[in-house]
């Protein structure tokens, strides 16, 4: 293999050698050498890179408008930024998440790549102008405001374009089953013990309600994430920016995100309606730099969603246990063999995957909580770990929920024979008799049936508490499931 050719670049720390075919510069290379921490698994997430590039495209247009940079420089920067956020230069961003806590090295990585690409564009056109990573690409910005702004933009986009559509997809799949199973009477369970009758549709409908609440919670917190730190520069005062820059940046990124909604790599393969993201300047730039309350609150919403998903997955696994010696009420799609030693065994794998994802999202939230609490004076320096965990949660929820909807819920069936058998055997049907024979007599009836292995009906007849006809009139499981005569889907 031929030896890789090198070039020499220089910064305030001196000269350093780089491969001739790379677009990044000295600061990126120093970070790459100084922080070789899990670089194969923990690189700075590309959505952060793409968001930074989009922001720098908007900034270039604004800076050219106010004569802070040359028009030709701005045009070259814009073209280079688009190459970045369309994923054409992904290999130029090698840095680890485990770097400076402000994200400065990643910001400079983006600045250097954009300036290098912009200079290639200018040279190819025969122009003499050159683009500097700090003076032009980073004009009017500090890492301390542009990096948290990028954090908010990419999390907002991932949440709106991936997390929410996936949750809506799961709700739709569940609602189809709510309708399909709305009149299948089953025995409810509290404390894992038999309780009064309900329907399978009612049981599944509880999850749709919880998931709808999760979506509402996420949307409320998403509005906070759409408040951006841009314009605060180094400590929040706005030094080296100008009045109105923050609003123009927010207007520009709102427009650009909307335009990019169908080509931007964040979009992925999700389907469904997209909510409009409207970005606004943070009310207090000092708070936006030193704290990450908006992201923490959204992480809290993800955490709450994870608790719903965890219960959903585990309830499905429990209700499908068996097939011969468990509850066996739900029939999950048999997607793959379940055991390397037990032939014919099929496991609730989608449930297990979703429950593991839920646990990981809860863990990510704990990390974000700790990191958000460690802001020191005017700057929180745990930004990379916050954004890495937030984006991890976004992707986990999005992918796992979609898999669960498509590969588990959509093919869900019920074991009607087993469910009917449990209803007939349940002693908790006695609850319907309490208003007629009193709690104490009803309790004695249930105890007698249990001790003698009788159905409740047979025990009532044996104890001569009532005739078969009277029992059948008073104990009707469907009426018990719909005591107010309403059998509509809830």
From TrEMBL:
Residues 14-363 form the Fumarate lyase N-terminal domain. The keyword Signal does not apply. Keywords: Lyase. It is an enzyme of class 4 (lyase). Gene3D superfamilies: Fumarase/aspartase (C-terminal domain), Fumarase/aspartase (Central domain), Fumarase/aspartase (N-terminal domain). One of its GO terms (biological process) is malate metabolic process. Signal peptide: none annotated. Its EC number is 4.2.1.2. Residues 429-480 form the Fumarase C C-terminal domain. InterPro entries: Fum_hydII, Fumarase/histidase_N, Fumarase_C_C, Fumarate_lyase_CS, Fumarate_lyase_fam, Fumarate_lyase_N, L-Aspartase-like. The keyword Secreted does not apply. It comes from the Eukaryota. GO terms for molecular function: fumarate hydratase activity. Belongs to the class-II fumarase/aspartase family. Fumarase subfamily. This is fumarate hydratase. The lineage of its organism: Eukaryota, Metazoa, Spiralia, Lophotrochozoa, Platyhelminthes.
